Amino acid sequence: MKNLQYRVLILGMGNLIMSDDGLGVYAVNELKKQQWPPGVSILEVGTSVINYLEEISRSQNIIIVDAVRFDYRPGRIYRFNFNDIEYWPNAALDAHGMSLPAIIKMAREITNLPTNIIICGIEPVYVFLGNRFSEPVSKSLPLLIKKISYEARKLLAEVPFNPSME
User: Fold this and answer.
1) Is residue 164 part of a domain?
2) Based on the number of CB atoms within 10 Å of its own CB, is 111 exposed (0-12), middle (13-18) or buried (19 or more)?
3) What does the alpha-carbon distance between residue 14 and residue 148 come to, in Å, rounded to a whole number?
4) 84 FRET partner, CA 20 to 30 A, in 28, 101, 117, 120?
5) What's the CATH number where 123 sits?
6) pLDDT tens digits for range 56-66
7) How many structural domains are present in the chain?
């Protein structure tokens, strides 16, 4: 692929001063401490994902890390494919008024990439001004980081499939 820049791009979304909403940014900063092969990039996009349209449109696989609210048990870890969600009723707008689905659509119109998008996140307890995570999110973060690392390496075919991580 002529336009391909990254085999795996990991994006940390959220706002660190909004309590549990900052978990995506925190997780990617922890992931940056690991050794990664060429072709992997880890970016803290915060609340302005549109600023990373170029990187998104040049990435084969993307893992998006964010707080995910489906109103289940707080601290629950989610993993799903972006394309499996037909309707995004609560798709948050970034600081520039763009939703994640709109940005992915724009990237695909530019380069037909990304081909694979995985969303990983945790059900938050609260999202309000504050710099501390809730107890359920704090307890789930280490496992989420482990699962994201596993997902990225699986996409790179560096580890054999392990159904116990699913």
Assistant:
1) no
2) middle
3) 16
4) 28
5) 3.40.50.1450
6) 999 999 999 99
7) 1
Task: Please give the helix or strand (H or E) that residue 115 lies within, else none.
Answer: none
Q: Of 29-33, 73-77, 99-103, where does mean pLDDT reach its minimum?
A: 99-103
DSSP β-bridge partners for residue 6: 59
Q: Which two tokens stand for residue 125?
A: 């307890």
Domain of residue 117, residue span: 6-156
Residue 35 lies in a domain: yes
Q: Which residue has the tokens 């170029």?
A: 54
CB count, 10 Å around CB of 151?
20
165 in a structural domain: no
> What's the pTM?
0.87
Nearest CA-CA partner of 9 in 145, 155, 162? 155
Q: DSSP character for 26?
A: H
Place of tokens 């994201």: 148
Token code pair at residue 55: 């990187």
Residue 120 lies in a domain: yes
